[in-house]
Amino acid sequence: MASISQIQGVGLGLKRELIPQIQSLYGQPEIANINFVEIAPENWIGVGGKSAKQLDWFVERYPIICHGLCLSLGGLAPLNTDFLQQVKSFLHQYQIPVYTEHLSYCTDGYKGGQGYLYDLLPIPFTEEAVHYVAKRIRQTQDILGQRIGVENASFYAAAPVSEMSELAFINAVLDEADCLLHLDINNIYVNSVNFNFDPHAFLRSIPSERIIYSHVAGHYQQTPKLLVDTHGEDIIDPVWALLEDAYQLFGAFPTLLERDTNIPPLNILMNEVNKIAQLQRNQQTS
After folding, report:
1. Residue 116: pLDDT band by 50, 70, 90 thresholds?
2. For residue 93, how far is the Cα from the chain centroid?
3. Which of 14, 74, 156, 192 is least buried, going by the fewest C-beta atoms within 10 A?
4. If phi over 0 gives left and psi between -120 and 50 gives alpha, with beta otherwise, what is residue 80?
5. CA atoms within 13 A on the CB side of 204
6. Domain residue limits, the chain
């Protein structure tokens, strides 16, 4: 399997509309700062025909990482072990060294079933939830035969039974599960506005040795005190500043640009890809 050490520099989420644009410019200086790409395994497992050929093309040319959408680490229903076996085979087939998921839940567990809610919802920040989620992460890692990364999630309403801060919860889960951290810079900023905390202070308590890579993205401002993590807007200056601060604290770790809606042409997206690369170079030479 490809090595995690190959995941370096700047990445881009591989959306279908970007595929022909990247293919047509491959090897050209215009996209030289795309160093790796990210896919959701749910969208690619078992594909055939044109999609399979496209995936093969990227596997031959770029390091690939997987960021899952539906595992529901905090959900009530049992983990979907059949799906995890499919993920394991997919990672092995395409030599993909990294698999991450959200530190949230997206299933209701109604009557023991696996009803998907099509949203990522916050887990109550309690000691009981730490043990529960950490156990499910360890089960996932045992099935896959490798450590996974968990992403700090954005949220909009705090669970009423929470006993600890988001930061304390994240760190407790990372420690008990002995997993990696998929650090989402924009999610820290979104939550800091929605729940009134200092995002830069939050960063300073992140265990840097667990960071595997990061996401950075834009969001929608519904009101001055309510931000929605849409991945559909340009990155704003406070998020850029938070990413730069993270590099100064932890070094220039791999960072991926997320853009899931309102996707502009690749040449426009490259403005933000190139800015991430420049921030990384600035840190490496400082």
Report:
1. very low
2. 22
3. 156
4. beta
5. 5
6. 4-285
Q: Output the pLDDT for position 87.
A: 98
The sign of the dihedral angle between the CA atoms of 176, 182, 184, 187 is negative
């930061």: which residue's tokens? 167
Q: Is 221 helix (H, G, I), strand (E, B) or coil?
A: strand
Whole-model pTM above 0.85? yes
Sign of CA dihedral 96, 101, 106, 110: positive
Q: What are phi and psi of 135, to 5 degrees?
A: -65, -40
Question: Helix (H, G, I), strand (E, B), or coil: what is residue 160?
Answer: coil
CA distance 115 to 191: 27
pLDDT in tens, 14-34: 999 999 999 999 999 999 999
235, HSE (Cβ side, Cα atoms, 13 Å): 29
CA 30 to chain CA centroid, nearest Å: 25
Q: How far is CA 53 from CA 46, 97, 112, 127, 205, in A?
A: 12, 20, 38, 46, 43
227: confidence class by pLDDT, cuts 50, 70, 90: confident
Instruction: Find the mean pLDDT for residues 111-116.
Output: 47
Tokens representing 124 are 């109550």
CATH of 4-285, one of 3.40.830.10, 3.10.450.350, 3.40.1190.10, 3.20.20.150: 3.20.20.150
Q: What pLDDT does 229 receive?
A: 82
Examine the pLDDT at 117 and tell me if it is beyond 80: no
Alpha helices in 113-181 (DSSP H): 127-144, 166-177
In the 8-state DSSP scheme, what is residue 111? G
Pairing of strands 255-257, 10-13: parallel
36 touches 62 (CB < 8 A): yes
* Helix then strand then coil, % of the chain, to nearest 5: 45, 15, 35
